[in-house]
Write a structure and sequence with these properties.
CATH class of the largest domain in chain B: Alpha Beta
CATH architecture of the largest domain in chain B: 3-Layer(aba) Sandwich
Strand order of the largest sheet of chain A: 2-1-3-6-5-4
CATH topology of the largest domain in chain B: Rossmann fold
Order of helices and strands of chain B: EEEHHEEEHEEEHEHHEEEHEHEHEEH
Number of strands of chain B: 17
Largest sheet of chain A: 6 strands, mixed
Number of strands of chain A: 8
Order of helices and strands of chain A: EHEHHEHEEEEE
Distance between the termini of chain B: 25 Å
Largest sheet of chain B: 6 strands, antiparallel
Oligomer: heterodimer
Strand content of chain A: 15-25%
Shape of chain B: globular
Chain lengths: ~180, ~375
């Protein structure tokens, strides 16, 4: 791939989701015409089953480039199951994630600065030590969904995103559908 | 099989672990991330070859002290400080390599009592703290008797000739090597000639010719002559091929770098039965169109000969061609891994065979 390589990745289920998310983001942040100018690389997959397939998110988390990884999923079909599958993929990096996604969202960090806090890994380098995970569910007023933002960048500070909004703020990516 | 490796204090590594290793392991990472150092650490695990690989690594890196003028017979001295993280030459400095959680090799600056056997240095440092004696480079292997002390010179150098002679002494007393280290420069013809003696008229001769045919399908036969009289042993003389439809004997050296690289790779693998093959920059000289076939042949042969392979690369094509083999050729679990070296993390990022395929399909950067 020529040009600038993105360090912020946003995975969505399909092309429609990419268009919807891009339009939402375009309303709040400058959005370039070319893909390399986008503030975040929105990557459609071939459907939710592939996105949640074993090792898919786990492999994305190992990318040499991604410093932020966000996954946006529809939650209109068995959201508990979908959370369980996201959780399974993220457990290596975030041990101690709860079985159920709390109704008011979740901020989990290996630093333990906010919200539910899985224990920090002690062996150096086993995971990015300051990584954080934040998940939020919208009220069921329309098509419900949740976004999972996996902050892979050890340089970022742990900040909770505003509720029910989506955008890119500084170097922190967060989102809610 | 080496399933996990630990490196403590060697060159750029403070504490570094690499796990989930497979039969074939591709090491990736940015420049100066320590990929070659990992290969070197692996090479020290075979005790009888450790001094030779230590010597060869320092020479390859150009880690020599300036030659002192006025010396009647100036000798080359290796600057051992570069072996240790921090590059300090001080008593007690050491590095350790562990394999599968157990000690595999240690090297440090030790002392030896004036009257003691220099081959039995006081090492590790704690045992030598009360002794006032000359400094030595102390080596320890995994075996109970694997100990060697090599005197350092007055300015802390290691006389090239001394280390070389110790290495040859140890190496010569050992059974045939089962650990081969292939550098980006590939094998000199004198080594090719030496290895050919173990390959000629065995089933592995056909494997080597098959490997050459990946690059030139017209090759029918390969012959290796004694390079004496064909140059100084560092040229590519002495290897001839016969191509289909021609009666000419064609010097392999006239056919391009890739041919010599493939010959070196095939011979190094064929002679590492039951052991380890280390390859620095495996893609050197190879066009991307042959890499998938190279990986397929290498993984199949490594399995057949019970060889564990560790190779480095910077090449996108090399990674993706390995992914195609993972996808298309069924293999046992744990056959292949990619390990990304990031010394500051302390642990390599390991990609399983399944994750390698996902990364290739999704254009995820593993390097």
């Amino acid at each position: 791939m020529a040009g600038r390589r993105h360090t912020k990745m946003l995975l969505v289920e399909g092309l429609d989701d990419r268009a919807a998310v891009a339009n939402l983001l375009d309303a709040v942040v400058p959005w370039g015409d070319r893909r390399e100018d986008w503030p975040v690389d929105i990557r459609p997959t071939l459907g939710v089953e592939l996105l949640l397939a074993p090792d898919f998110i786990r492999t994305q988390l190992k990318s040499a480039e991604a410093r932020h990884l966000c996954v946006v999923l529809d939650a209109d079909d068995d959201p508990s199951n979908r959370w369980a599958r996201v959780r399974r993929e993220a457990l290596d990096a975030f041990p101690g994630l709860p079985d159920e996604l709390p109704a008011d969202g979740l901020v989990a960090s290996t630093l333990g600065s906010r919200g539910r806090t899985p224990p920090a890994r002690r062996s150096a380098g086993r995971s990015r030590p300051e990584a954080s995970i934040r998940c939020r569910r919208t009220p069921a007023r329309s098509q419900a969904g949740f976004a999972t933002s996996l902050n892979c960048d050890s340089r970022q500070k742990d900040r909770a995103p505003p509720a029910d909004t989506m955008g890119v703020s500084g170097s922190e990516l967060w989102g809610v559908v | 099989m080496i399933r996990s490796l630990g490196i403590h204090g060697y060159r750029c590594f403070d504490r570094f672990e690499m796990g989930d290793l497979g039969r074939v392991n591709l090491l990736v990472g940015t420049n100066n991330s320590g990929k070659t150092s990992v290969l070197e650490a692996l090479s020290f695990l075979r005790w009888v070859q450790a001094p030779r690989f230590l010597w060869a690594g320092m020479l390859r890196r150009g880690e020599m002290l300036p030659i002192e003028t006025g010396d009647a017979a100036p000798g080359q001295e290796l600057d051992v400080r570069h072996l240790f993280r921090g590059r300090e030459l001080a008593f007690g400095r050491r590095f350790d390599v562990t394999v599968n959680g157990a000690p595999g090799f240690a090297c440090g600056i030790g002392r030896v009592a004036e009257s003691a056997d220099p081959a039995q240095p006081l090492f590790p440092a704690e045992r030598a703290s009360q002794v006032r004696g000359p400094l030595v480079l102390a080596l320890e292997g995994a075996g109970a008797t694997d100990r060697l002390g090599i005197p350092l010179t007055g300015r802390g150098g290691l006389a090239d000739a001394v280390l070389f002679s110790r290495a040859m002494l140890l190496d010569g007393a050992a059974p045939p090597a089962s650990l081969n280290f292939l550098s980006p420069e590939s094998l000199p013809s004198q080594v090719v000639n030496s290895l050919w003696g173990a390959i000629a008229l065995t089933p592995e001769e056909a494997f080597v010719v098959d490997a050459m045919r990946l690059l030139d399908p017209e090759i029918e036969r390969l012959a290796v002559l004694n390079p004496i009289g064909y140059g100084d042993g560092r040229t590519r003389a002495g290897v001839l091929v016969k191509r289909r439809g021609s009666d000419q004997r064609v010097p392999l050296g006239s056919m391009g770098d890739g041919m010599w690289r493939m010959l070196s790779l095939a011979m190094a693998l064929a002679t590492a039965r039951g052991g380890t093959l280390l390859v620095d920059e495996i893609d050197t000289g190879l066009h991307y169109t042959v890499m998938a076939d190279m990986w397929r042949l290498l993984t199949e042969t490594a399995e057949r000969l019970d060889v564990q392979v560790f190779a480095t690369t910077h090449s996108f094509d090399c990674v993706h061609s390995l992914a195609s083999v993972c996808r298309d050729v069924p293999g046992a679990a744990g056959r292949v891994s990619i390990q990304r070296i990031e010394p500051e993390r302390g642990t390599a990022i390991a990609f399983s065979e399944r994750e390698i395929v996902i990364a290739a399909r999704q254009n995820i950067e593993v390097r």
